[in-house]
Amino acid sequence: MAKQAKPCVLVTGFAPFGGETINPSWEAVNQLEGLAIGRQESHIIHTKELPCEFNSALDALYQAIDKYHPSVVLCVGQAGGRSSISIERVAINVDDARIPDNAGNQPIDTPIVQDGPAAYFTALPIKRILKTLQENGIPSEISNTAGTYVCNHVMYGLLHYFQSQQLSCQGGFIHIPYLPTQAVHHSGAPSMSQEMVKKSLLAILNESLEYKPDLKISAGTTH
Amino acid sequence: MAKQAKPCVLVTGFAPFGGETINPSWEAVNQLEGLAIGRQESHIIHTKELPCEFNSALDALYQAIDKYHPSVVLCVGQAGGRSSISIERVAINVDDARIPDNAGNQPIDTPIVQDGPAAYFTALPIKRILKTLQENGIPSEISNTAGTYVCNHVMYGLLHYFQSQQLSCQGGFIHIPYLPTQAVHHSGAPSMSQEMVKKSLLAILNESLEYKPDLKISAGTTH
Amino acid sequence: MAKQAKPCVLVTGFAPFGGETINPSWEAVNQLEGLAIGRQESHIIHTKELPCEFNSALDALYQAIDKYHPSVVLCVGQAGGRSSISIERVAINVDDARIPDNAGNQPIDTPIVQDGPAAYFTALPIKRILKTLQENGIPSEISNTAGTYVCNHVMYGLLHYFQSQQLSCQGGFIHIPYLPTQAVHHSGAPSMSQEMVKKSLLAILNESLEYKPDLKISAGTTH
Amino acid sequence: MAKQAKPCVLVTGFAPFGGETINPSWEAVNQLEGLAIGRQESHIIHTKELPCEFNSALDALYQAIDKYHPSVVLCVGQAGGRSSISIERVAINVDDARIPDNAGNQPIDTPIVQDGPAAYFTALPIKRILKTLQENGIPSEISNTAGTYVCNHVMYGLLHYFQSQQLSCQGGFIHIPYLPTQAVHHSGAPSMSQEMVKKSLLAILNESLEYKPDLKISAGTTH
């Protein structure tokens, strides 16, 4: 199989769920399609909207990976109620859906991969990313849980695919706040502008393409 | 005394306080200087940075009012930790400073105006403003307390001046969230982009210049 | 009408509202009925459950005041979502109901007392109360808004009655958290045990009966 | 070594850390020493205070397990800022200390067990525990992160010991809120009474000793 001429990265967002009419992840990701990224614009960005469905989200993700052979895969999802760009550290091998997904499925305490490892750590340089985002004036944090819904499912599935297919990709998951237009309908909920989310995603991709070791800077939580 | 040729409005922001190096209120307000506002650009905007000091903030405010004879006076302050544009409903006649102001004063349970009324309600059409902001996709809320620090002090002092000087002005107080660059240093704190704050202030001024009765729409709290 | 032989205090709680089956205020207040309070058990405690209704709550309150001639009137209400005993500083002259009351009424931006003052400050020694509660290990705070629902309505009405009837009473309003049994149904909501609420109310009554000047200790908010 | 005559369980709490003078976990756990638990009081409770130190906490835990051969090991820690009994679902193989531990160590992004699995799922019936606690009127929740400090370290180390020593124990980790006396010093922080924490721990132990399969009830989060 011939490799693609131009190196690329893949960024995914989600379809709306949980009563929302938009998903800020796809709203932002969609704007990145075809842009060049990396030093000397070394990579182009491909994007993909994933369904918010346990059964089909990973199929769509794997197809896109197989199609594009990306150097980095960045999956992005909505975290309504969070204030900052959340850089996820770890995905766990369980689905426990508080609400049904968009296909009506609500798995409870089901492994994502039967006999898979309990968790995968991200394959992104999360501390370097954190430092870069903060230096750019973007509220951001390391998160130690991506939940137990489709977002965690996709993050786990992504990292399992890297492992099982022996792909030497970087990749991971980022949660983003509501857009201001959504927060209007969630009294008191924090939000982030689409411009800032877009800027964040570009910074994360650039940082990931640097291929330097991650930094050891403290960004943990006591609980 | 000759009246000014061109009708105007006055918008104030504050100097930084509490360890911050910027105050998002003045950062945004400062950008409005000299802009035209209202139907057919009927009014120009004057701006003024107020010191974050109990003793001198109102002097500076009153001087600006006397100088410009504005139709609307909109005072703006930082509410670190809030997520939305907070449209203040009421100011109370007490200073109770949790931290010293920028001049080192920390009044505790002191009336702002000796023998003044316990409170003044805002002289802005707050429900119309709320509706307009939300229709423009801006997270916003009615707040029933402006605190007991310099912000409440200035709001009370403003409305007392309207009353005591028999000015037929509109005016009131708006609290705004941290800027993203500030929230970086306050883990988990919500923020709002300067563009959105600026857009909010212009919408509030335009709405205030409409001189229509306020709407009766529910925006209260149970506690 | 002859004055009562034994001096007394009056403590009120509310009926449940907003879908709750109990109201922690009445659950706690109800346990105080007939207890002796004050130095040398100088006063007995009368209690009264108020309807959560704009129209009739104050009638019930005024009847109880007229009946008992209490030295102190302490009104207590539920503040679901707050973590601490909230000692209210001020009540404002407006009803703005986010939800209908138990009689189906939902007043919006209506004065509680036509031509009444914009606000009344509490007639309780709130800083002494705060200090006492904290010394007793009870999470507590001064609150600068009692909301715009029936709680604020009752607090304003109480203080207006003191004023209009020239009663030399002490009195005010305290908001309390959910009970743990309620918080079970409000994911992540803080709660306080009934024992601690009861202990708080007794401490507040005792402190109020001391008739010493209030303390000047800082307990304000910047917004 | 002869097995103990009487079956037992082991419950651990922590020493104070982070500037606190008490740790609510040990305050509550300490009260359980020697109590009988389980159907027909089948088991006695042993307790152990663990140091809040990465290096020595697990040594102390393993010594206690080796000494008592408990059927259940329940480790308990403080989660200041949480409102509910937090039943931890998973521990991850990383230390990332936001603050130094009590011995002055601050590991950053260090594996707890070199080449250990990325995570261990709890060995407690967490959904049955959740249901029982809620039926008993105790605010409680499943948590998907125990942080990256000594609490997560101990939970991971406990479950790794079960695995490496092939112990057929049940066990896991519970986070508890501040005590009210602590919350007094953390403005706005939620708290839980010691009585309720004690009642929770006994209910968790009883539920664990039932040896029934866990329930499949939804208790996940979307992020």
Question: What are the defining features of this structure?
Answer:
homotetramer, alpha/beta, Aminopeptidase, two-stranded antiparallel sheet, 11 strands, 29% helix, thiol protease (chains A, B, C, D)
Note down, in words, how this protein is organized.
- The structure is a homotetramer of 223-residue chains.
- With 223 residues, the first copy, chain A, is α/β, with parallel strands linked by helices.
- Chain A has one domain (8-210): Aminopeptidase (3-Layer(aba) Sandwich), CATH 3.40.630.
- Chain A has 6 helices and 11 strands.
- The first copy, chain A, has helices spanning 24-29, 54-68, 126-135, 150-164, 180-183, 194-208, and strands at residues 8-14, 36-37, 43-50, 72-78, 85-88, 90-92, 95-96, 108-110, 119-121, 140-143, 170-176.
- The longest helix of chain A is centred in the N-terminal third of the chain and has 15 residues, at 54-68.
- Chain A is globular.
- The mean pLDDT of chain A is 96.
- The A-D interface holds A 18, 77-82, 86, 89-90, 92, 94-99, 106, 108-109, 117-121, 127, 142, 144-149, 151, 175, 214, 216-223 and D 18, 77-82, 86, 89-90, 92, 94-99, 106, 108-109, 117-121, 127, 142, 144-149, 151, 175, 214, 216-223.
- Chains A, B, C, D: It catalyses: Release of an N-terminal pyroglutamyl group from a polypeptide, the second amino acid generally not being Pro.
